[in-house]
Amino acid sequence: MDQENSDSLYTVFSQVIRFHYYRMHLLFEKFGVYPGQHRLFFILGKQEGLSQRELAERLHIKAATVTVMLNRMAKANFIERRPDADDQRVTRVYLTGQGQNILIQVKESLRTIETECFTNFTPEEQILLRRLLMQIRKNLMNACENPGNQHSNNR
């Protein structure tokens, strides 16, 4: 990997990730959402009433990180916490009415980003790029699951 070359594949890929994150931040900050929170909105939009532990497992992040995210979201009135009906030690998380409205805005913002990203791509190029990105995802997932096999080629 040639990190000195600003057009190297790895450098360009890293720049795309950074610009995508920055663009999300610019769009989300208009309605008080931090990057990363959109995933919580999607999960709760599909299935409310999950516990903090269940959310952490689905997001593949630490429970303490979810706590920080949920505290911010509760302060903004996007979510509410309710005790579990059967086990008072467990707290369940639900979107508020305002949170439901924010979920709609998050989806619209991501559609905007998707349009911006893939403008000037043919449908065929989009299909090819999707396949290539899915392979990168698979490679990285395998590397995370098998850290000792960093250079295996799984084609």
Summarize the SSE layout with pairings.
Layout: H1 9-28, H2 37-46, E1 50-51, H3 52-59, H4 63-75, E2 79-83, E3 91-95, H5 97-118, H6 123-145
Antiparallel strand pairs: 1-3, 2-3
Helix pairs in contact: 1-5, 2-5, 3-4
The parts where pLDDT drops under 50 for at least 5 residues are none
Strand content: 5-15%
The average pLDDT score comes to 91
CATH-scheme architecture of the largest domain: Orthogonal Bundle
Q: Structural class, please?
A: mainly alpha
**CATH H level of the largest domain: which superfamily?**
Winged helix-like DNA-binding domain superfamily/Winged helix DNA-binding domain
- Number of DSSP strands? 3
Kindly identify the CATH topology of the largest domain. Arc Repressor Mutant, subunit A
Question: What does the overall shape look like?
Answer: globular
What's the quick description here?
This protein has helices at residues 9-28, 37-46, 52-59, 63-75, 97-118, 123-145, and strands spanning 50-51, 79-83, 91-95. It is mainly alpha-helical.
Tell me about this structure.
Helix 1 (9-28) runs antiparallel to helix 5 (97-118), helix 2 packs across helix 5 and helix 3 crosses helix 4. Strands 1-3-2 form a three-stranded antiparallel sheet. The chain has helices spanning 9-28, 37-46, 52-59, 63-75, 97-118, 123-145; strands at residues 50-51, 79-83, 91-95. It contains six helices and three strands, in the order ααβααββαα. The longest helix is centred in the C-terminal third of the chain and has 23 residues, at 123-145. With 155 residues, it is mainly alpha-helical.
